[in-house]
Design brief:
291 residues; alpha/beta; Rossmann fold; Conserved Hypothetical Protein Ylqf, Chain: A, domain 2; 2 domains; 7-stranded mixed β-sheet; 12% strand; binds guanosine-5',3'-tetraphosphate
């Protein structure tokens, strides 16, 4: 497999965001981790569990409107099997968010029972949102907080830069998401992050990314190739580069001598995927299903 140059965050960035998160953790009862429903594993940060220690966590598969619903259902089952509470949401329209607070309460049921025993059942549940850049943290906070967001206030025991916004139902959200760095020692993870637009792709090989995407399309969603006027038979047995060439040819992206402008074809394929024009494609399957 070709190596993609890895764009790791600088160690200084990582140390800073890690420190910020650690300093906020003592104030929250639960961590809400956003992931991209199209890449539920690659959009996670493997260090998070050790960072949050024994704190509770719920995973939100955000942007579920852009992912394959059948795959999202399988991913939810997979997370549940790992003992991780998970929910699919669309923070742009708010779809799925009605299930969020009930899930948080369920996850915190033991803590809530302890509070009730101590006569502190009115105590607010506090949470903080974390996730890699662009995964939708701000959109989620805005959706949940709505017009309440203006009513930010300081609370005793909390430093002045920490602000809590009520999201109803006795729940408060830290109005400052924790930014996790994407982690991809595995080039395939970096590629998926780049295909979805989660990391900048200037330094990645655009053609390689488009080839990977088209190969995945052929394997999992062959019917969607009809967008390029191709049938599953047309593309059978082609090398990934030939597949990209064929797509470019079908789109008339030719340069002198009848050669295909594969770079232009690659940019088009990636743009169309990111713009949702290719359809709702999930780019990775739960581990036990990975072929
Ligand atoms: P961040 O704070 O984690 O960095 O992410 P942010 O909320 O800024 O969202 C990044 C992009 O993802 C935004 O698009 C946002 O609209 C989009 N987004 C967030 N949640 C969802 C979702 O559930 N579904 C879909 N389809 N998109 C979502 P943008 O292009 O940067 O801005 P704009 O389109 O909102 O103008």
């Amino acid at each position: 497999m070709e190596q993609v140059p890895s764009i790791q965050w600088f160690p200084g960035h990582m140390a800073k965001t890690r420190r910020l998160m650690k300093s906020n953790l003592p104030y929250v009862d639960i961590v809400v981790e956003l992931r991209d429903a199209k890449i539920p594993l690659s959009s996670g940060n493997p260090e998070l569990p050790s960072l949050i220690g024994s704190k509770k966590r719920v995973v939100l598969l955000n942007k579920c409107d852009t992912a394959d619903p059948e795959m999202t259902a399988r991913w939810l089952q997979w997370f549940q099997k790992q003992g991780i509470a998970a929910l699919a949401v669309d923070s742009k329209t708010g779809k799925g968010l009605s299930g969020f607070l009930p899930l948080v309460r369920e996850e915190l049921s033991e803590l809530l029972a302890r509070w009730a025993e101590k006569g502190a059942s009115g105590r607010p549940i506090r949470m903080m949102v974390v996730g890699i850049p662009n995964v939708g943290k701000s959109s989620f906070i805005n959706r949940m907080a709505g017009s309440r967001r203006a009513k930010v206030e300081d609370r005793p025991g909390v430093t002045r830069d920490k602000q809590w916004v009520s999201v109803g139902g006795g729940v408060e959200l830290l109005d400052m998401p924790g930014v996790l760095w994407p982690k991809f020692d595995d080039p395939a993870v970096g590629e998926r992050l780049a295909v979805t637009g989660a990391v900048k792709d200037q330094v990645l090989d655009i053609e390689l990314l488009a080839m990977r995407l088209l190969s995945w399309l052929r394997e999992r969603y062959p019917e969607l190739l009809s967008r390029y006027k191709l049938t599953p038979e047309d593309v059978q047995g082609l090398e990934p580069y030939e597949l990209l060439e064929l797509v470019g040819r079908k789109r008339g992206m030719l340069i002198s001598g009848g050669e295909v402008n594969t770079e232009r074809a690659a940019v088009t394929v990636l743009d169309e995927y990111r713009g949702g024009k290719l359809g709702r494609l999930t780019l990775e399957a739960p581990p036990e299903e990975t072929v």
